[in-house]
Design goal:
With 371 residues, the chain is an alpha+beta fold. The protein has eleven helices and seven strands. Strands 2-1-3-7-6-5-4 form a seven-stranded mixed β-sheet, sandwiched between helices. The longest helix has 67 residues.
Length: 371
């Protein structure tokens, strides 16, 4: 039987309405455990083990190695001291532990003996009433995942990207969880990439809005080129998005193509779907970057054209004003013998000549689009 329905159900909430039910499991934090431990549970045959529900990580791994199954521990921004005991209990490599504690890591996949260490960048779209030159469009976080033969440890950094909903959906699908720790890794990867798809759609709306405003006819009296700050800010946010998506391509290819002892063969084939979705998002983000470059160049070109039009108008009016300036300058010279100085109609003739010449120049410039 195909596992696709189970996988989809695990990473996407059901659209069907159902009557509220009482939770079948308790995610109360163990007061004796570290404050960074969000949840710690043992899973056997795809189900959360009943009985004592408050387990410390050491108790959880002891139960697993005695009775089978696997343990999933979720942590949020642990310190070195808080993570040291867990790292020792599960035999985690010091380099991976250092990366998990200090965060700010590039998305990657590394193998340390019998443990896979995966880093994901989570992306959250920041809602805003109006895009400005200082608007924050995307907010990033990180999720690190240690995957072993009988354990999964997720370490989350940042205020976004909670995995509580993902854990609950997986616990509602025992057929998927029975595949072991690799099912959690797949669901986490799919969860992160689905977040990328949603953010890409929202960023596309922002880009469409900016693009339409740049190429729309400006309002009367409005100057072109005022959107450059917004475009540049949006481009910076897209670059942040790209830094989360691009490095993850290679890890997803490895998980989907290279056989790994820690990844169940039935699960591995579904990493291809995640890799395909990630490649699509990557193409979108690269397209966003290129499109914003074009929009920014078009905006700057419009500003340059507007400046050239202003200079042509200034030059045209300067040429018109030069005519009366020249004539008045000539007749303002203090020479005794000048033509028409004593003529009765000299003044009206000069004024008529100034007006006539100015009107002719004005009409010529308007016909050529300078005014």
């Amino acid at each position: 039987m195909s596992m696709l329905p189970y996988l989809r159900a695990a990473v996407r909430p059901s659209l069907r309405k159902s009557a509220p039910v009482q939770p079948r499991y308790d995610t109360t934090r163990d007061p004796s455990a570290s404050s960074t431990v969000v949840d710690c549970a043992v899973y056997r045959d795809g189900r959360r083990v009943l009985g004592p529900v408050r387990l410390t990580p050491r108790e959880a791994i002891r139960r697993v190695r005695e009775d089978g199954g696997f343990v999933w521990i979720g942590l949020h921004e642990p310190t070195e001291e808080e993570f040291a005991g867990i790292a020792a209990a599960f035999g985690l490599h010091p380099l991976a532990v250092e990366d998990a504690v200090h965060a700010h890591q590039r998305p990657k996949l590394e193998r340390y003996d019998d443990t896979l260490f995966t880093v994901f960048k989570t992306i959250h779209y920041v809602e805003h009433a109006e895009l400005t030159a200082t608007s924050e469009v995307v907010e990033t976080g990180e999720v690190m995942c240690f995957t072993g033969p009988d354990f999964v440890i997720t370490v989350r950094h940042g205020g976004q990207g909670s995995l509580k909903g993902l854990r609950h959906r997986l616990q509602d699908d025992p057929d998927l969880l029975s595949k072991g720790p690799s099912s959690v890794l797949h669901s986490l990867a799919d969860h992160v990439v689905d977040g990328y798809i949603a953010v890409a759609a929202a960023v596309q709306d922002d880009i469409d809005e900016v693009e339409s405003e740049v190429f729309a006819a400006p309002a009367k009296g409005a100057a072109r080129g005022g959107d450059a700050g917004r475009i540049y800010q949006l481009k910076r946010e897209v670059m942040e998005f790209k830094r989360a998506v691009s490095p993850l391509l290679r890890p997803m290819e490895l998980l989907s193509e290279r056989p790994m002892r820690l990844v169940d063969p039935d699960i591995q084939k579904y990493f291809r779907d995640v890799a395909d979705h990630l490649a699509r998002v990557h193409e979108q983000v690269v397209g966003f970057d290129e499109l914003l470059n074009s929009i920014l160049q078009a905006n700057l070109a419009q500003a340059t054209v507007a400046q050239n039009e202003d200079m042509r108008k200034i030059t045209s009016w300067a040429a018109i004003i030069a005519v009366p300036t020249m004539i008045c300058g000539v007749y303002g010279m203090n020479f005794e013998h000048m033509p028409e100085l004593q003529w009765k109609y000299g003044y009206p003739m000069v004024m008529a000549s100034i007006v006539g010449v100015c009107l002719t120049i004005h009409r010529t410039l308007r016909r050529h689009g300078w005014l």
